[in-house]
Design goal:
With 449 residues, this protein is of the alpha/beta class. The chain has 17 helices and 24 strands. The chain has a 6-stranded mixed sheet, covered by helices on one side. The protein has a 5-stranded antiparallel sheet with strand order 20-21-24-23-22, sandwiched between helices. Helix 1 links the parallel strand 2 and strand 3. Helix 1 packs parallel to helix 10, helix 3 packs antiparallel against helix 4 and helix 3 packs across helix 8. The longest helix has 19 residues. The radius of gyration is 23 Å and the shape is globular. The termini are far apart. 49% of the residues are buried. Flavin-adenine dinucleotide binds next to helix 1, strand 3, helix 2, helix 3 and helix 7.
Length: 449
């Protein structure tokens, strides 16, 4: 066999694979990076980057509408779309590939397949290594709904690279992707209906979070069908018509499926290294090892489907390969939904804390009643902060916020949870006036002593 030898072969160049590649390369490990589509992965071209870029212009307009004495700015879709195209590099990863090659990383474009322990095949070549890192990410999970395939649908890929905003759209799924893309399209004029089989949006979060954002979306004119299951799809007069289990029909020019993610595990030769994925993905230990000489990182592990988690696991893997003692800790990873107002959460929800038998104390702070910043920030100020604490240990175990820039200031809670900062210390910590961060003092004071 004529095989090239590498210190590590990474399959998948999304954010997880990229961090592992860069870190290992910096550790003088000779790296082969295998990518079948675009270096940068889902995040850079069809997920995080385009969605946040598209949400920002209407967020700016909404901010202007809420500030006294400011007239709402106009938004030109053509320029928004052009900037989105710039941000997704016009779906061209040539610069990224060159960048890696300049650093000494060998990039192989093609489908990576594990042929056996320490062997990866790509484009007729065989790469030999003692370390394989699987970072193949996830695809949109497509539910089995009668008529869906025939009617045709969008996933996040079409929704984030769209040339024109459709006149109307039905979105299946009221999770972060459905909420973000629904608000973006509504704010660009589409008639939007979100169908969610759970009783609330953002079911993973505390109930208050889903209720607060549902109110906002309804006020903006988004139709919500909660507790409703799509049972059939058909095409009628240029529209996709979705039949719900209660008998109601909802229709839109387009149909977006946003019902979760499925790990990319098929056709990769996992059986050749004794790995059997389950529906969530590849099982890993605290060092991100999936088998002897095999690591798995990012969405394919099903741990938490966020770019920052994949990047963290990339760091853990590189450190493990460097022989450092590592153990991944997922207890204080923030979760953000970049709608307006922003939603951020970290740690446990109240019900998760109770399931873990903590002696739970909670606090809920209506920001406009408690601090000054919401009033200086906008008229009719919005926002709430929720805290979940363990009374026995006197530490925070969870927090959520629905408020402007919550994704930035949730990090205070993330650090407090991660470091198990005593609540007495949080009570004695001074936040700068006037900021949203001041709400934490009100929250921890109302948790009681
Ligand atoms: C609409 C949307 C918005 C999102 N917004 C955010 C956000 O704001 N913040 C956030 O943290 N997360 C967000 N996410 C989640 C985020 O996109 C993912 O968590 C992240 O992309 C996972 O990174 P990854 O490296 O594991 O996988 P991916 O980004 O999926 O990359 C995996 C790469 O592996 C390649 N690959 C797969 N199989 C093979 C193979 N056999 N051979 C070679 N290459 C292969 C793929 O082509 C791909 O390039 C969003 C997701 C969606 C859908």
């Amino acid at each position: 066999m004529n095989a090239s030898r590498y210190g590590a072969v990474i399959i998948g160049a999304g954010p997880a694979g990229e961090v592992a590649a860069s870190r290992l390369n910096a550790q003088d490990v000779k790296v082969a990076l295998v990518e079948r589509e675009l270096v940068g992965g889902e995040c850079a071209y069809w997920a995080c980057i385009p969605s946040k870029t598209l949400l920002r212009p209407p967020e700016t307009r909404s901010e202007a509408e809420r500030v006294a004495g400011v007239s709402a700015p106009a938004i030109a879709w053509a320029e928004v779309a052009a900037y989105r195209d710039f941000m997704i590099r016009n779906l061209d990863d040539g610069g990224q590939v060159d960048g890696y090659r300049d650093q000494g990383v060998d990039v192989f474009k093609g489908d990576g397949r594990i042929a056996g322990p320490g062997l990866v095949e790509v484009g007729g070549q065989t790469l030999q290594t003692e370390r394989i890192v699987i970072a193949t990410g996830s695809d949109a999970r497509i539910p089995a709904i009668d008529g869906l395939e025939e009617a045709g649908y969008w996933t996040n890929r079409e929704a984030t690279t769209l040339a024109e905003v459709p006149e109307s759209i039905v979105i299946l799924g009221g999770g972060p992707v459905g909420v973000e893309l629904g608000q973006f399209m509504r704010r660009f004029g589409a008639r939007v209906t979100i169908v969610e089989h759970g009783e609330r949006l953002l079911a993973r979060e505390d109930p208050a979070v889903g209720e607060l954002i549902a109110r906002t979306l309804r006020e903006e004119g988004i139709g919500l069908r909660l507790g409703a299951r799509a049972v059939g799809v058909s095409r009628r007069e240029g529209e996709r018509v979705v039949r719900l289990d209660g008998g109601e029909e909802v229709a839109g020019r387009e149909l977006l499926v946003a019902t979760g993610r499925a790990p990319r595990v098929h056709g990769m030769g996992l059986e050749n290294v004794g790995i059997q994925p389950d529906a969530k993905g590849l099982k890993i230990d605290e060092r991100c090892r999936a088998a002897d000489g095999v690591w798995a990182i990012g969405d394919v592990t099903g741990v938490l489907p966020f770019t920052h988690v994949g990047m963290y696991q990339g760091r853990i893997t590189a450190a493990d390969i460097a022989g450092k003692p590592v153990s991944a800790d997922y207890t204080a990873i923030p979760r953000v939904v970049f709608c307006d107002p922003e939603i951020a959460a970290v740690g446990l929800t109240e019900s998760q804390a109770r399931e873990q038998s903590f002696e739970v104390a909670t606090a809920r702070v209506a920001l406009a009643d408690a601090i000054a910043r919401p009033w200086t920030y906008e008229q009719n100020p919005r926002g709430e902060l929720g805290l979940i604490a363990d009374r026995d240990r006197e530490v925070l175990v969870g927090a959520w916020a629905v408020a402007p820039m919550a994704g930035e200031w949730i990090h205070y809670a993330a650090l407090a949870i991660k470091t198990k900062t005593p609540i007495s210390v949080l009570r004695d910590t001074v936040a700068q006036f006037p900021t949203f961060t001041e709400a934490y003092l009100k929250g921890v004071e109302s948790l009681g002593h």
